[in-house]
Amino acid sequence: MERLQKIIAQAGVASRRKAEQLIIDGKVTVNGKVISELGAKANPNKDKIEVSGVPIDKEEPTYYLLYKPSSVISSVKDDKGRKVVTDYIESTERIFPVGRLDYDTSGLLLLTNDGHLANQLMHPKFHVEKVYVAKVKGIPSKEELKQLQRGVKLEDGVTAPAKVKTLTIDKKKQTAIIQMTIFEGRNRQVRRMFDYIGFPVLKLKREQYSFLNLHGLNPGDSRPLKPIEVKRLKDLAVTKPS
Predict the structure, then answer these.
(1) Is residue 102 flagged as an active site residue?
(2) Which cellular component terms (GO) are annotated to the entry (predicted)?
(3) Out of 102, 104, 170, 221, which one is annotated catalytic?
């Protein structure tokens, strides 16, 4: 017997957190009976489990790396009819993005039907390194960039220390290309950090997620993760930060 939210997540229907909400909302049934308590358990091999009237089938875990283009939603559907990240991957499994990239941000995004791993990678206690390259308006000084390195106070708290490096500057256009490495996953974090020091982001790309990068890919391209890459991610997800 396993907790119901774990079974739903492992089936690729939703992340464990979203599965919990589905249970609370009364959208999950086991053998025809509505289950609305989070402590409920079921046998995934014997019980008939349905979410919103649709039976779940345990799928083989699937993992993809996508070079997300800008102007694409980090979701499996959009009520406004805009492009979503799953439009770029041909998969029979019900995959979903691990975290998100903003609509106007491009770069590396993971997609999977492994809700357990996705939850672990997104959990704040696991400091997954994420490398971004930002084109900003203006040319930040070394002291201004040191503020980002130390952490800045945003409305949702002080950011963890970041790694920051200036790649190029254009004095004529008054712009700069800055590489920033962060270890958190707050909403629009990189953009908000640059706004804090007075240098709005004009263009943003995530180039690396832990050991994974975009080498050999163009915007819109994707590839399945190699077994060794999946293993490294799982090892990363169970290793507590020092």
Answers:
(1) yes
(2) cytosol
(3) 102
